[in-house]
Amino acid sequence: MVIANLYAFRTKFPRVMMAAADPVGPENDRVLGNLTGTVVAGWGTNADPARVAQAVALLPSLNALGVTKGGHPKHPLYVRRDAPLIDWPPTS
């Protein structure tokens, strides 16, 4: 399993990350663009929509472990351990 992030900057606090000079980092998009296999989206509700669009354009088809009320792929910490993979974005 490989875990990748929309942003290279790591913190438990989204506001701190978004205040960073370059939260994406210089190599993050290259790494995202090289991902293959089953990719599970799980950025939750705190990702900037423009950043999501940039990253999704680099990634192969995506899955999720659930979807929030707002349509975002649920973060893995907030789903049941037996949650099935679904297509994301949902096709219906």
Description:
The protein contains three helices and three strands; from the N terminus they run ααβαββ. With 92 residues, it is of the alpha+beta class.
Strand tally is 3
Radius of gyration: 13 Å
Helix count from the secondary structure assignment: 3
Helical proportion, percent range: 10-25%
Estimate the strand proportion. Answer: 5-15%
Q: What class, by secondary structure content? A: alpha+beta
What is the ordering of alpha helices and beta strands?
Answer: HHEHEE
Shape: globular
Mean pLDDT: 93
Largest sheet, spatial ordering of strands: 1-2-3
Main β-sheet description: 3 strands, mixed
What distance lies between the first and last C-alpha atoms, to the nearest angstrom? 28 Å
Give the uncertain stretches in residue-range form. none
